[in-house]
User: Fold this.
Amino acid sequence: MSLSSVLPLPRPCRLLILLLIALLPIWRCHAQADPLLLTLTNPLPRASVGGFYDQNVGIASGGDGGPYHFQLTAGGGFPPIGIIMDINGRLSGTPKTPGTYRFTVSLVDLGGDHVEQVAELNVDPPNFAISDTALTEGNQGVKYFSFAITLNGRTNKTAVVSWNTTPGTARGGKAHTPGIDFQNVFATRVTFLPKQTRKVIRVPVYGDHTVEADEFFFVRLSKPIDATISRRIGVGTILNDDAPPPPPPVLLTVHKIGTGSGTVTPNPPGLSYANGTSVTLTATPAVGSVFVGWTGDASGTGDAVLLMNTAHSVTAQFDLIPPAPPDIHITSVDKLVTAHTGLYTDYTVTVYGTTTGTPGYYSYEAGYGSFGLINNTLTFNPEYWNFHFDYTQFNGGNNTVIPIWADIYDGTGVKASDQTNVILSY
Assistant:
């Protein structure tokens, strides 16, 4: 199907319509494209005389796209002598003279459109800068704090700068003066020959044992020749490296009381301890004594555990073990004894006993009342007591029960008793 069959128009009209159809894509492209932009970092990063410079002048975007071309606009100024700009917008080279330079940069896109921006580049003369330093002072003698002085930007001339120290919180003074932290240095010149870019200076710092906060002093640059100063003050920080003295020892006091004796053993040994030490006390009674318990800063009868975060005082009581009471017992049991008129009948009992302390004594008797009361020195090994029964002594009739009892006394008069019976027959 032809255009003439669709559009019954004269031939010139048909040609115009075809031309518009052909140009429509191009018109759409231009209508939809972003505007051409040149984004500069303005002013540009600073340069230094004699120092190599390398920096993009800006960023291109939009328009008909790249490749983009950068160029200097005629009559719009120039970069510093020694620096050129390529078609990619890169500035590079070594500037020869200081100053502020403004120049117009033109950006051209693929379609030939262009935009312009004015760029500014500051070129500094050669300049001095000084570093900071931080070190511990030490406990004695001299330590040297080093500071670097740099000359930024090369120069074919000799450059000179002076420096001196000034106090901050640190105390300055003459060398080896008691109580000072660093040695004062008055105006001192440093010379940089051509192509020299770095020199190191040193400040004496004196160590001590004083616990103090970190301190600082200053090093100042001044009086530059054939250069300027970009960083005038360096800070010297003296870091404290002195530990505070340990806290005083904590004391433990141990007393012993009572009628007995014994020992108190601390673990760890000693009676003076570092703060926070845990100490265990063990009480051991001597033979014949008993540990009664703790008083003061401890209690109970077991091991005492103390945290030595303050002074403590404890008392251990040891008493003598009390003597055992006397004891006596007769081993014979009831026994039938036949007695005859006018005759004696023997009967023996075996007696055991114990006492403590001073020697005691015993007594025994048989029959009624106080019959047979006898006192003797106590010599149990055991004792054998022999009784003689006479018929005429007893009127109780046949099968009379006759008690036999024994008493024992220790040296303090404490008594123990036991008894057995004899049945008398006739």
Observations:
- The first strand starts at residue 37 and ends at 40.
- Confidence is low (pLDDT under 50) at residues 27-32, 366-378.
- The two ends are 174 Å apart (CA to CA).
